[in-house]
Amino acid sequence: MLDKKDYAIVVVSKSGTTTEPAIAFRLLKDHIEKKYGTEEAYSRIIAITDGAKGALKILADKHGYKTYAIPDNVGGRFSVFTPVGLLPVALAGYDIRELIQGANEMRKTCTETSSIADNPAACYAAIRSSLYRMGHQIEIMVNYEPSLHFVAEWWKQLFGESEGKENEGLFPAAVDFTSDLHSMGQYIQEGQRMLFETVIHVMKPKYALIIPSDGANLDGMNFIAGKTLHEVNATAALATTLAHIDGEVPNLDILLPEINERSMGELMYFFEFACGLSGYLLGINPFNQPGVETYKKNMFALLGKPGYENETEAIRARLNEG
């Protein structure tokens, strides 16, 4: 595919040795060097990595890649507002200054008051903590807008990697409604009462797509002709919320004014701040990820990485015993 494309690469890795991005970069680096020649290829590679050390930093300095630094005190899942998130967002054509402005506005809201009621992140953290202690161990992030799908995927990593320690933490899941109502709706409605939903509602649609009338009306849907798709979507959200509340599923609503850079900056900072508070309410450190390192060590050992020989022998012995 890339043989027919004119392209450049942004590689993001603090160390340069994490298996997944390192393999992807090795494959793409090989291709771009063969396609353009090494000198031009190097001008088409941007590295977002540690500011002073690591394999990718050494490689970038050697070949003259343009580089941006990842701050030492920011973990990957919290790095939306560093070059890790900002450069790809800018390359996609969005206004990162508006994104940062939204984050700053939410930061002020979250830090300039001592009242939980006036601090949306503290309120969210307190409610989800209370529900967790009442036996609701799964939080389902619900959205009704396809463009929010990967925001929910990021949210799952943010809370899962931050809270899931020491046998504590809510299990984060996500669904895209209304499509997932046909796969998950039945369980949410009548399955075990161990979950609650956090629903993101977008108040103002980006497009006002109007549903047309049809003369034959064979599908029997003329009763919604003239309504916008957003109106029908909002009605589906309300109907679903009512049904799930009747099914004794707690529901939290997050109202997003519209989907734009500023509101997304507010939303993501809100989640990051609330995630830190939630971790502290659990009595754990929300900013480390010791469990992730365990699978990495096993993977390196099984793949035969130098320096992991002892671990390789131990793992193979365990597998043989099993």
Describe the structure.
- The protein has three domains: 2-70, Rossmann fold (3-Layer(aba) Sandwich); 115-282, Glucose-6-phosphate isomerase like protein, domain 1 (Rossmann fold, 3-Layer(aba) Sandwich), CATH 3.40.50.10490; 292-321, no CATH class.
- 50% of the residues lie in helices and 14% in strands.
- The chain has helices at 19-36, 38-43, 55-63, 83-91, 96-111, 120-133, 149-163, 185-190, 229-246, 261-282, 290-303, 309-321, and strands at 9-12, 45-50, 66-70, 138-143, 171-176, 195-204, 251-258.
- The strands form two sheets. The protein has a four-stranded parallel β-sheet with strand order 5-4-6-7, with helices on both faces.
- Helix 9 links the parallel strand 6 (195-204) and strand 7.
- Helix 6 (120-133) crosses helix 10 (261-282) and helix 11 (290-303) crosses helix 12 (309-321).
- The longest helix is centred in the C-terminal third of the chain and has 22 residues, at 261-282.
- The radius of gyration is 23 Å and the shape is globular.
